[in-house]
Amino acid sequence: MLISTFLDDLYEKFLRLGRSRFWLLFLGLVFLIVIFINGIGIVPEEPYQRLSENPFITRTDIHFNNYWQENPLLPLIAHYLRLTAPAAFNILCFVILTGAFLSFALLSSRRWGSAPSLIFSTLLITSPLTTVILTWLGTPDGLTLLLTVPFLFTGSSLLLFFLSVLGAVNHPAFMIAVIEILALRWAARDGVKFKHILMAGLGLAAGYGLVRWFLTVNQIEIVSRVDFMLLMNAGEWLKMNALNFPMSLASLFNAHWLILVICLVMFFKRDRFFYLLALVILLVNYGFTFFSLDTTRIFSLLSWGVLFECMFHSYGLARTDKDANPQVERQFLQSLVVVGMFSLIAPRYFSWLGEIHTTPFYQFLRKVFR
């Protein structure tokens, strides 16, 4: 069988499945497969679960570098829902992650249709962000993802403000990621105007103020992220990032680097400003990641929305080019289907402390066959 014939058949099956009533069930199956081949682990020391037991005092008993107390939203939610036991807290995190995937699927289906949404959602579920969230269940990353998803779709200034407040209380990476998404949507002429960016900025400022107020009222003393970064000098950061640089760099998007390549090859000439802006943003995000111990995790939190906005803009360009070249949309979606299938079976790993770590499934296999 020719490769082109195989790709055509695979693409047609995806379209038929995407147009059926069972496309969400198929996404659920993809998620179950990812869970199986990735495994589920718990974040070391479980700081957020332990913080949820009493988020109103300084928790240096968990770790003396308590910068994670700047992220009080998830522990507060668990505290008031009385889901502070380890099992209950981690189930809550898993439910939030599932809700994030479901909201992305429904919102993308509403915008692009169920068939393209099936492809886009499969890519999100098989992304490196999912790898680190499942490997370190118990972080606020799933909630960050859930709060970030609407920024790719909504045009409501009030919703952007409300989500910005919550996101800023949940994790600082959210504050950078959503402004970048809105900037790219503005560059793509995707219904974002200055008022949307302004309302999001006001919401982020309000959320940051709430965090400072919460820490002050409860007399919580923290080691800030800036203080934490200064614990290591520039030479130590450079040494850590250079330790396994090629694999660390590959881990940032893993197989999804191919999505960026596809978008650039097919559409760069159609909108040079947009794609150059996206590349600059990704470079800036790597600069932030350079001063982080969680290389893959932080870059994924900052950049997954940038990559998907590139994909959405490229798909929009492909659709507008349908009359002149009806094969462009088909070729683009076929390429994404191949990337999605490849990312499902590609090795899953991440970079932490400059070292390459495998997921719980590989650790399980190592124990079995030792």
Q: Please summarize the sheet with the most strands.
A: 2 strands, antiparallel
Count of DSSP-assigned helices: 19
Give the fraction of residues assigned to helices: over 70%
Could you report the average pLDDT, rounded to the nearest whole number?
Answer: 91
Describe this structure in words.
The chain is mainly alpha-helical and 370 residues long. 71% of the residues lie in helices and 2% in strands. The chain contains 19 helices and two strands. The protein has a two-stranded antiparallel ribbon with strand order 1-2. Helix 7 (128-135) packs antiparallel against helix 17, helix 8 runs parallel beside helix 10 (172-187) and helix 17 (295-320) runs antiparallel to helix 18 (327-345). The chain starts with a helix and ends with a helix. 42% of the residues are buried. The mean pLDDT is 91.
Helix-strand layout with pairing:
Elements: H1 3-19, H2 23-38, H3 47-53, H4 73-81, H5 86-112, H6 114-125, H7 128-135, H8 141-148, H9 157-170, H10 172-187, H11 194-217, H12 225-229, H13 234-242, H14 245-251, H15 257-267, H16 272-290, H17 295-320, H18 327-345, E1 349-352, E2 355-358, H19 360-368
Antiparallel strand pairs: 1-2
What characteristics describe this protein?
71% helix, globular, 370 residues, mainly alpha, 2% strand, single chain, two-stranded antiparallel ribbon, 2 strands
